[in-house]
Write a structure and sequence with these properties.
The N and C termini lie far apart (39 Å). The protein has a two-stranded antiparallel ribbon with strand order 1-2. The chain has helices at 2-5, 49-52, 58-64, 71-79, 91-105, 112-123, 130-133, 138-150, 159-178, 184-202, 232-244, and strands spanning 17-27, 34-41. It has 248 residues and is mainly α.
Length: 248
């Protein structure tokens, strides 16, 4: 029964994806343009990143109307939108968008509308599948983009340049420590939890900080089970340990 629920991979037929070491030219089944890609489903369907993330402009309206200071609460609202699938490059934008929203709501000095426009522009440039192909998960990059936006970093800056790259590296370290296969939800949670700590330490803004419990296990064919820190059982163990010996 659980396996039957795991349908959120190929947007055309819901079949599992396969990855190739070398890119191939394939036609997107939705827009019918040709792209270089490292993945398609087992039935040969390919959907380009642009079509996969269609509807992502809704991020701006969702974030502008969200008053939460907790980026994980904002993230969950974004993940519940029709444009967001179990896996996909939309996570390369929504992580940073959730952080920008909570940062502003927690007292961070940014123009949220402008910041979100920049986040969408940059996040959309991060390709799907780079977690395994480039060794740089897009969720971690999105957290780095968040820091680059709020610090106004450019390649010619000194401190801001360092902060943005350090943020990405810290998120990548957390994601790498858990290992694969990929789960865009898990990696997004890890990147945001690390960004909350980083923002408090280096930017002087304390955002809300809940600890998520995964509710999407049945949708992920590659769920790593007990290795994931966000399974209900692991979260319950964490909560019990903190109740005995609370730490921050």
């Amino acid at each position: 029964m659980r396996a039957a629920l795991k349908t959120d991979e190929c947007l055309i037929c819901h079949a599992p994806l396969v990855y190739f070491e070398k890119p191939r030219t394939m036609e997107c089944q939705i827009c019918h343009r040709d792209f270089q890609t490292n993945a398609c489903c087992v039935n040969g369907h390919f959907v380009c990143d642009e079509c996969h993330t269609r509807g992502m402009d809704a991020i701006v309206g969702v974030c502008l109307s969200n008053a939460s200071q907790d980026p994980l609460e904002v993230l969950e609202e974004l993940m519940s939108q029709p444009f967001c699938h179990m896996h996909g490059p939309e996570h390369h934008t929504i992580v940073g968008a959730a952080l920008l929203t909570a940062y502003r709501n927690a007292g961070g000095n940014i123009d949220l509308s402008d910041a979100l426009d920049t986040m969408l522009l940059r996040g959309r440039q991060v390709p799907g599948g780079i977690c395994g192909m480039w060794g740089s998960c897009g969720a971690a990059i999105s957290a780095g983009i968040f820091v680059s936006i709020v610090t106004k970093s450019t390649p010619l800056e000194s401190e801001a340049f360092g902060l943005a790259n350090t943020m990405t590296s810290r998120a990548l370290a957390k994601i790498g420590a858990v290992g694969g296969p990929r789960c865009c939800k898990r990696d997004s949670y890890l990147a945001i939890l690390e960004a909350v700590q980083f923002t408090k330490e280096h930017l002087g803004v304390s955002m809300g900080e809940t600890y998520p419990t995964c509710t999407r296990i049945a949708k992920n064919r590659q769920c790593i089970g007990n290795r994931c820190p966000f399974t209900p059982a692991n979260v319950a163990r964490r909560d019990a340990a903190q109740a005995v010996s609370p730490t921050k």
